Amino acid sequence: MVQKAVVKKILNPTQAEIEVQRQSACGHDCSKCGGCGTPTERIKATAVNSVDAQVGDIVTVEGSSKQILGMAAIVYAIPLILFFVFYGICALLHVSEGFSILAGVVGFALGIWVAIRRNHRMKTSGEIVFTIIKKG
């Protein structure tokens, strides 16, 4: 995933703190759109500074596709999988359908909780790696 970012701080000779404007779900740059009126979110992250970018530079950063797809799998797939697993276990045990649905909802909520915890852990440990690939 390639995005534009602004260098906010130089952390050391090989790393910089960047600020990336979160892209919309429609895939367009919200800074150039007045369509939906949704406020855009800015995300701060650490990036490998391989091009000697300085504070204030607008840079192009690339995120690891493997990490992004892994997070997408956690956020979208795990809650659904846990819903069906919890529902299926109750159905196999011949529990009432209402209780099976309730168990599925609990599984879904557990999946969302896992995704939130994983996201928080990735943010605090700096596991999400961006690389500055060019200035401008």
Question: What would your notes on this structure say?
Answer:
This protein is an alpha+beta fold and 136 residues long. It has one domain (2-135). Helices cover 42% and strands 28% of the residues. The chain has helices at residues 65-92, 97-125; strands spanning 2-12, 15-21, 42-49, 58-63, 130-135. The protein has a five-stranded mixed β-barrel. Helix 1 (65-92) runs antiparallel to helix 2 (97-125). The longest helix has 29 residues, at 97-125. Keywords: Membrane, Transmembrane, Transmembrane helix. InterPro entries: RseC, SigmaE_reg_RseC_MucC.
Features:
single chain, 136 residues, alpha+beta, 2 helices
In order across it, which strands form the biggest sheet? 1-2-3-5-4
The overall strand count is 5
Mean pLDDT: 81
User: Which oligomeric state applies?
Assistant: single chain
Radius of gyration: 20 Å
Q: Treating each run of at least 4 consecutive H or I residues as one helix, how many helices?
A: 2
pLDDT below 50 for ≥5 consecutive residues: which ranges?
none
Number of domains: 1
Fraction in helix: 40-55%
Structural class, judged by helices and strands?
alpha+beta
In whole angstroms, the N-to-C terminal distance is: 17 Å
From the spread of the alpha carbons, the general shape counts as rod-shaped
Q: Which range does the strand content fall in?
A: 25-35%
**H/E element sequence:** EEEEHHE
> Mind summarizing the main beta sheet?
5 strands, mixed, barrel
